[in-house]
Structures are given as structure tokens and as C-alpha cells.
Protein 1
Amino acid sequence: MAEPVQKRARETRARLIAAADALVAERGFEALRVEEVVLRAGVAKGTFFSHFRDKDALMDQLVGARINGILDEIEAGEAPRDVDEMVAALVSLMRFMTCERYVFDLILRYSGAAAVEEIGPIARTFGRQMDIAVGWLHEGPFRRDVPADLLAEGVQAFLVQAMALHFCMLHSDQAMRDRLAVYLRAWLMPAV
Amino acid sequence: MAEPVQKRARETRARLIAAADALVAERGFEALRVEEVVLRAGVAKGTFFSHFRDKDALMDQLVGARINGILDEIEAGEAPRDVDEMVAALVSLMRFMTCERYVFDLILRYSGAAAVEEIGPIARTFGRQMDIAVGWLHEGPFRRDVPADLLAEGVQAFLVQAMALHFCMLHSDQAMRDRLAVYLRAWLMPAV
DNA sequence: CCTTGAAAGTGACCGTGGTCATATTGGGTA
DNA sequence: TACCCAATATGACCACGGTCACTTTCAAGG
């Protein structure tokens, strides 16, 4: 489960991930079957489970890697200077996280150290999100009556809320964007 | 699936729910097995699935009923006049929703019309929550620069956030309470 | 009553995730 | 080179949710 020691095992693990990646590209996350992964990777089913605790653990890797890619891009851009820019910066993240209902549920389930004892890739991306947001909040023209990391937690909460609602009603990207903008304006720039 | 028409079917459905309730009382939600439910109810497996779309649909009923019971009590109490009272009013709700990781995940999955086309019991309880919160926010000494229903959505978002974090770290009821209090103070009474 | 069609119920069967006793392989040691 | 044991791999097997072609029961109309 922990990074294997022998070369053979590292290669097997890499083959499993490559096979899974290809299958996801073809048919999406939800349709992924362990049986197909091992078939394509050319290993037995038991081997899969000596590399990953369960199917979700593989998903954690795959999805975590994608989110990290998106966060890389977000970090490469410059810090948003108002709510609209912040929303714009977060759109790509929201889009991926809501690409499939299955993916969104998985992310929620793994966003905390929650279900797993050792913190996984997805949970780590939530830590990264926090750090990035804290940086933004220090620089920009946002409320200061409350610590930046509390504000960042709120941004995360509203991000989740906006995505969750996205699945309920008629969902367009624009609607999700607008909803997040309303939330963040009220959260980050109260005008009491 | 919709309320059955013949008496026999209504009784069967009631027996299934009663059996499930008993099993949940004995061993919790996560440990519930469809096979055991039908065994105890004295019906065949197929019968279960002609009464409930799937196992989760039954869970939706059971959990929704519990939440409604809690909301009844909350509504019976009087409206909180500050953040601390509001948190206190919400504690019982949070406690049930976090009684099992499985339950929390289920609730998140069903909190929107999300996975199901017709809106279910759990989703309806979220509507009720909103209504109750809006009532509170109109009466109490909370910020007015933003509509009450937006504030209520925020309360819900922070409620979820507090519960989610509850599963990550060392979780005591007190910690969850305190976290929610911090969120709601910043959300409902900004001092810019 | 009897007939008849729809509602309700049945259980053998299937798909898929996950386990485990056993076999194979790799690299360190004598 | 021969030996050994830990790491790795195997696949038959199990658990459990869910399906479906078929049977049984109900009640309305003749």
C-alpha cells in the first residue's frame, strides 16, 4: 500500500494507474471497473488490492492528481484582487469537481482525513486550496475583522455549497459561478 | 415505489420499515443488510426492491424521519436571540447527522435533489431547515445587509463544514460546537 | 360465483468489489 | 552457486446489492 520497494512492484503499480487513467479517459470515472483495470494492466485481481486498499483509494490517486494539476495552474496565475476575479480563478476547479456526480461525492468523502486514517491525495489538495486562499485574502481588499484562515475555510464551505446546489437545479456553469459570487461577496465584503 | 394502493402492499412496506428500524436500533445504519431486512420482515428480496428503488432509498426514509423528529423539537423551542443560542439549537441536529460517517455521507448525497429525480425525505428536511433559519434570522439581531435566505444558505454551508471537519480531527461534540460558533459569528455578525 | 387483468410477491441469478491461502519471484547471505 | 525468506502475485472464492421472468393474489365487472 505504501510505495512498494521492489522495482517489479513499482512497475505493476504504474501499469495499474496507467490502465485506470486510460479507462477513465474513455468512459469516465463512474464507469471504471476494477476487473477491467486489472485486465488491461495484465495482472490478477488480488494484485490490485495489494496496491490499493480499495477501489476508492485508486480514485483518490487519480482525482487528487487532476486537482493538483488544476491548483498548479491557479497558483501560476496571479492573486485575484476582488470577488469576481476570485470566482473566475476557481471556475476550473469547480468544473472538474462537478464533472460527474460520482466524482463530487468521492471528493466530499475524501476531503477530510475522514474515511481513511492516513491523509490521502484529495485531502491534501484541500490543504493546498486553503493555503492558496489564505495568500489571496492577505493581499486583496477583503474584510480584516476576522483571521484570513477563517475566511479561507468559509470560501471552501461556500465553494462546496455552490457545487452541491449545482446538482440540484437546472445546472449551468454560469449559475454555479453566479451563486459562488453572491456567497463570496457576502462573506468577504460585508457592508453592515 | 410510490405509496402502494392495496392494503397488503402497504402492510408489507410497513413491515419492511419496521424491520429496518429495529435492525438499525440494534446495529446502526452502516451495518444494515437488505438480506436481513427481508428475512426479518418475512418477504422475498425482490419484494424489497419493488418497494424501494434501492437500499439508499430506504435509508433516505429512515434518516429523513429522524431528522424531521429533531426539527420538530427545534421548531417547538423558541427562536435563538444570538449566535450561541443558535448553535445550541443546532447541536442535536449535528449530533445525529454525525452519529455515523455513513449517515453523514448519505445525507450529503441526498441533501439535494441530486442523485434522485423526485425529491426525497432528506432533501425535504433541508428545505425545512432553511425555513426555520430564515425565521430566526428575521427576528434576531443579525446582519441585515444581505437577504435572510442567503444568510440561511450560509448557515447551512457552515453547518456542513463544521460537521465535515468533525470527522477529520480529534472530534468532540464541544469542538464541533465551537467551530460552528466561530463560523456563524463571522457570518452573521461581521464587524468590519 | 366466475373471469380476468393489474398489483404484489418470489427466488434463482448476476455483477462487482473485496479476501485469503497458496505459489512465485527477487535479492541478500554463506 | 545454492539457499532462504520476505515481497509480490495469483485466482478461486465470498458478500452483498440489485434484476427479471414467472407465480400468486386481489378486486372489479359480468
Protein 2
Amino acid sequence: MDGTGWRPVKRTRAFEDVLAQIERRIAEDGLTAGDRLPAERHLAEQLGVSRSSVREAMRVLETLGVVSSQVGRGPDAGAVLTSRPDSPLTDLLRLHLGLASLEMREVIDARHMIEQWAAAHAATAGADTSGLAAALAGMDAATSAEEFVEHDIAFHRAIADASGNRLIAAMMRSLRDSMRRYSVEAVQRLGDTSVLRADHVRILEAIGRGDRDEAVRAVSDHLAHAYPSLFR
Amino acid sequence: MDGTGWRPVKRTRAFEDVLAQIERRIAEDGLTAGDRLPAERHLAEQLGVSRSSVREAMRVLETLGVVSSQVGRGPDAGAVLTSRPDSPLTDLLRLHLGLASLEMREVIDARHMIEQWAAAHAATAGADTSGLAAALAGMDAATSAEEFVEHDIAFHRAIADASGNRLIAAMMRSLRDSMRRYSVEAVQRLGDTSVLRADHVRILEAIGRGDRDEAVRAVSDHLAHAYPSLFR
DNA sequence: GACCACTGTATGGTCAGACCATATCTAACA
DNA sequence: TGTTAGATATGGTCTGACCATACAGTGGTC
């Protein structure tokens, strides 16, 4: 004991204080996407820290998809609150895949779970399937694996968006984006995409007529065809 | 036209270069959790940028749960690669809930999806249920809603961990952490927790005897009891 | 030899101040 | 009225300094 009072292990860093203050203000003032934060120099003065610390906090918020910074002057300049949960999720997954702290198997399992959920909800909600049809046409017209995958992504993305849950849709987009390269390789390895095409048609039709169970089965079969090595 | 050649809209910022370089090195050198990054000053010199820019990149990586920084000297000091997808996910969800860019309904739907998946896989895998039983005992002994929720979180977390998918388990933990406050209110509003207890016992037993379908149903019923206002 | 206190040093954390690039605003001017 | 030139506020970057921390070494003491 030192008799001077006690200090817990962790000192909070200056930028963490800034983060907490900003988060508090967001909650208290009810700030939402589109609202502006004070300029870095003003925040630094108000909070009694250096501009560097404010900037580090800004980087964190930007990384989390909560603010976006523009230079210059005027109503659109400075740090503006945004709402982009996708790109942080994508970065997160990509980096952790790179670090080998996640295996592709786990990512594909997660995708399986989300795709089934989204297809079921899209079918139940009687979603508009014109976007799906357009993506399908894009796949038919594709002349390279990369191009095919782009439209494939658009197809599955449309299902997720149609599910009506923005969080789950964001997860879906991030998963798909972070495994884009792997998908291209999978398509190249497969060579023939006619099986995938048939799967897509089956999914589209099941959703179109609101057949939930068939939509779920179709998605499941589709993933098994696309990544045969990962399914027993 | 200015005749001097053309410049695309977006200039990359210095810290973004640093990020790209570090990510490249992680991929090329096959760095994984536990490996150290060069010191900030060295990185700054190697990459030809200021230390501030390196620090901003570090904040980003730290936010994404990829590095962790320690001061001091020795083998454990400096920036060390880590693997914590949980805390970034939690921060992400908490901030976006605060920003009202996500609704609680969406978060609970996502939780529903993940809980069902995890319960099904835990049941199929014949998971050890001793952790679940311990959490159940903790809930029985709890004397406040906060305490109850802590053990409740532990219970559901154990199911997610038993599913064998680290990504999905991380999603589960993050979802649950970000809605901790809401859970406490829900328990207080409910008053009597005997219904929840019965649900937990039912889930535990279904997983214990490997009854996948019953586990899924039990989880679904449980969430309906816990958040009655969000289920039709 | 074993232990302990002191000093050195590499690390991240923080700050102050300067300058640049950019985008808008303002006022003078034609 | 339209245009242009300057003023200004913003983020982006750099430099250099100093602090706090925690280990590495060094030397002394027992």
C-alpha cells in the first residue's frame, strides 16, 4: 500500500477520453447521421487535449464508420456523422482472415447461416425479384470469372437487402466482399457455371412464389455446389 | 481541362498508405497473432512519413482488434498483433445503435438467427453442458437484474462458443454485449424470471441429449418470452 | 553466488506549433 | 450583374520536444 489512494491497472489515454465525450454528446444531444461535429481545433480546446489526440479519436470513429471527414470550408466540411456499418465490418473480416485468426470455413458457415435467413425472410416478405433477375442476366453475360463474381455478389446482396434487416444485410455484404478473391478462385476452379446458374434460378423462383422452405433448401444446395470441399 | 495530366478525385492520406503497407507485410511475411510490429519511430522512418501518421494507422488497427500497444521496453512492449474481433464488433454495434442507424429490432432478429444456429450446432456436436449448468446456477443465485443478466450472457455465450465457429461466436458476444443495458431493463420489466429459467433448462437439456430441432425451438420460444413486444 | 538498488534506454503517450492543400465565403472590381 | 482575387476555416502533415513506463544492464551488498 502506498497510502496515496489506489490506481487501477489501466490509465485511459487522451483519445479515449475524447471518444467517450463524443459518444456522450451523440447520446445526449441525439445526434444522427448528417449532423456535424465541431472542428478538430475546437474540440481540442474544449476538451483540453492536443489536436493529435482529437485526430486519433477521429480515426477511430472513421474506422467504425461513424464519421466522415471532409477538408475545406462550408456546411459540408469537417467531421460529419455518417452511418456505414459495412466498410468497418469488411475491413475487420479481411484483416482477420489475413491474420489467419479466422478460417475460411468459419466465414462460409456464417455466410450459410445468413443466406438461409435472408432467403427465408425475402420469400416470406414477398420481395420484388426484378433485381435478382437483373443480376442473373449479368452473370449470363459475364466473360470472366471476376465479372461473374461481381454479378453473383449483386444477386446475393439483393436477397440480403430484401430481407429488411440492415444489420444482417451489412453482415452479408461484408462477408461477401471479404471473400471476393476466394470466390473468383472457386469459380475458376469450377469451370462450368451452369450448375450455379440453375441454383440461382431455383432460388429466384422460390422467393418469387414465396416458398420459404424451398428457398432455404435452394440456398443450402447452392453453397454446397459453390464450395464442395467445405461440405461433408 | 488543365493540360497537366489528370488527377482522380481521392488522394490517399498518409496513414492509409501506412495501413496498406502494414497489411501487405502481414500477408507477405505471414505474420500472425503474437508477432511484433516495428516501433512507431522506426516505421515512420522506413515508410517516410511522420510519427503522427503512423500513430493514426495504429489507432485504426487497434480499433479493428488487430494490434495492441504496450508501453515500456522488452519483448512484450510495442505494437503486437492480436486477434480480437469481439471488441471492434461490440463498439461498432453500440455506436450505431446510439446513432439510431440500427434499430433494436434488427439486433434482436440477428441474435435470434445466431442463437438458433449456435444451439443447433452445439446440439449436433454433442457439446459439454457443464458451463451451461454453471451459468444456470449463477442465474438462480442472482440477487439483482444486473447480476442475472451477467449469468444469462454467460449462458448464451457458452452455447455460441460450443458451436465451434469463432466468427459466429464473436458476433454473438458482440450482439449480447451491445444490448446489455436493454436486457437488464427487459428483465426488470418482466419481474418474474421463472419463465426464463424454464426456457434455459429446456435449452440445456435439448443440447445435452443432442436434440437439434428441440434446441432450435427452445431458443426461439425463449427469445419470444424475453422480448415479447418484438414478436408478433 | 544470490539478491537488490540504481541507472540507462527503448517504447508508447502527449503536446505545441508550424506549414500545406482544399473548399468556401466575401468583397472588390469590371 | 457577373467575375475574379483575396481572406478564412477546414483537415492533412510534419517536426521536435518532453513525459511515463517497463525492461536491461550494472554494480554493490550480503
